[in-house]
Input
Amino acid sequence: MTFAEILARAFGPPATSVRPELEELAQQPEVPPELKELWAEHGWAGYADGFYWTTNPRESAELLRGWRRIPPSATVIGRDAFANLYLLEKDAVFQLNPHHNDHDQVASNLGQFYRICVAEPTFQDGYMWKDLFKQALAAHGAVAIDECYGFFPALKLGGSDDVGSIRRVKMHEHLMFLAQL
Output
C-alpha cells in the first residue's frame, strides 16, 4: 500500500491540497521516492479537518532554525494540528513537540511511520492529541494550511493543555516564538 493510500484510509481524502509542479518535486531535498510519490499524488495536504498535514520541506526548513537540538540535515515531512513536526533524519522519523521542546524518535523508517504511527489510533491519541484536537475543532474550527492550535499561555510558561487555553494562530510565527522559550 502506498503512503497516499495509507493516509486516505486513515483520514479520508485530503481536504486541502497544494499540488507541486514536477520541477518543484525535483528540487526537494533527498528523500525516499515513496515520499515524493505521496507529494505527487496528494500534494502537500491537510487530512481530517487539519488533524494531519504533509508539508513542503523547502518551505518548512526555516522552522527548524530556532531548534538547537535538531540536526541541520533533518527534513520536515509532516505536522499535526498542534504544530508537532515530523522530521526525517537519515532513515528514522522523529517528532519535534515544540510545546515541551521534546525531540523523540517515533519510527525507524518512513514505512513504519505511515503504517504503524500516523495511521494508528494509539499514536494519534498519544502523540497527536486526537481527543484534544476534537475539542479544539469544535470550539475553534479547523486550522488552515498556515495555522495551528497554540496554547496561551504557552505550556513551557506554565499554561494549561485544556481546550480553554487553545487559540488558532499562524504556525510559522508560533513555532518561532516557542523556539525562543
Notes: Strands lie at 16-18, 44-47, 52-54, 75-80, 85-89, 92-97, 102-107, 147-151, 166-170.
